[in-house]
Write a structure and sequence with these properties.
The protein is mainly alpha-helical. The protein has helices spanning 10-21, 26-33, 37-47, 55-63, 79-85, 120-126; strands spanning 96-97, 106-107. The protein has a two-stranded antiparallel ribbon. Helix 2 packs across helix 3 (37-47). It is rod-shaped, with a radius of gyration of 31 Å. Residues 44-66 are annotated as: Disordered. InterPro entries: GcrA. This is Global cell cycle regulator GcrA-like protein.
Length: 134
Amino acid sequence: MSDTANVWTDERLEKLKVLWSEGLSISQIGEALGVSRNSIAGKAHRMGLPKRPSPIAKTKSSTVKPVAAVPEPDREMPLRLELRKLEWSRSKCCWPTGDPKFNGFTFCGDAIVPGKPYCLTHCQEAYTTSRDSS
């Protein structure tokens, strides 16, 4: 950029207004005028040009459409919906059974070993050491 690139002439200010109204990005306007995007942002603000919605927010709101999910048997189902159906108890084994992505996912539910979160069968599976497997 030359020293003249930093001079805001009436012609350059008018071009900035036109490009701004056409909806070009700040970076694109900067390239067209030969100045940094920060220079464009600051000048647009000082000139009181209308604010434009963030391209990030615009993309999110225009592409995301809420869809009501109706779970079907043996179809993928959000874990949080399955978990709402379960009755939790600290006295029942919380060993997971099935695939948490699908209907039918549950927890064992048998009586726990005192001080552990699992029943005897699942404690034996969960609490192993390398010595046990040799």
